[in-house]
Amino acid sequence: MTGNIYGYVRVSTAEQNHDRQLVAMRALEVPEKNIYSDKQSGKDFQRPNYLKMVKKLRRDDMLYIKSIDRLGRNYEEILEQWRVLTKEKGIDIVVLDMPLLDTRRDKDLLGSFLSDIVLQVLSFVAENERVNIRARQAEGIAAAKARGVHFGPQARALPESFPALYQAWREKKISLRKAAEACGVPKSTFYDAAQRMKSRDNM
User: Fold this and answer.
1) By the 8 A CB rule, do 195 and 170 touch?
2) 3-state SS class at 8
3) pLDDT tens digits, residue range 163-181?
4) Which of 12, 115, 123, 161 is catalytic?
5) Which CATH superfamily is domain 5-133 in?
6) pTM exceeds 0.90
7) Helices (H), 74-108
8) What residue ranges do the domains of the chain occupy?
9) Nearest C-alpha neighbor of 125 from the set 98, 85, 96
């Protein structure tokens, strides 16, 4: 091999750990300066370090990735990036967790055909899992809301004196500002609670 060796690692958020991927790259003796890492979603390829790496890649270079979903999670964009890297850039790609995705081997027509099929299946699986995760998250949030779980900032509790203060404000004995200060809440909070109480009184 005449080109340089590169490695690309990715995790979806800053809280996630990419040590396992880094260990795999170092075991392959990928030079540290050639390991590019992003902590960003795989929904598209607008990732700063990925884009820097692609600019450096030259024909006959080698790129290692741990698994196809580390490259990305969007089915069509993975296929397009694979085409750009292997056909336009002329580099080889090795997916460590899937030996069939190794462009160094089977360079004949049949080998390329089989690699393309495997890539399309795995890319579809990666995107399908991304869609399923989003669906499960939405279902979980809906179920939690149905159980009365509150999302967003916690509502501030009103004091026991609120009904009396509400009545005094409604009868214009005190101002909205004074009533809210007495409750220890912002004017908007007091007003919203007053409107809810008014609606209940009118039922």
Assistant:
1) no
2) strand
3) 888 888 988 889 999 988 8
4) 12
5) Resolvase, N-terminal catalytic domain (3.40.50.1390)
6) no
7) 75-83
8) 5-133, 162-201
9) 98
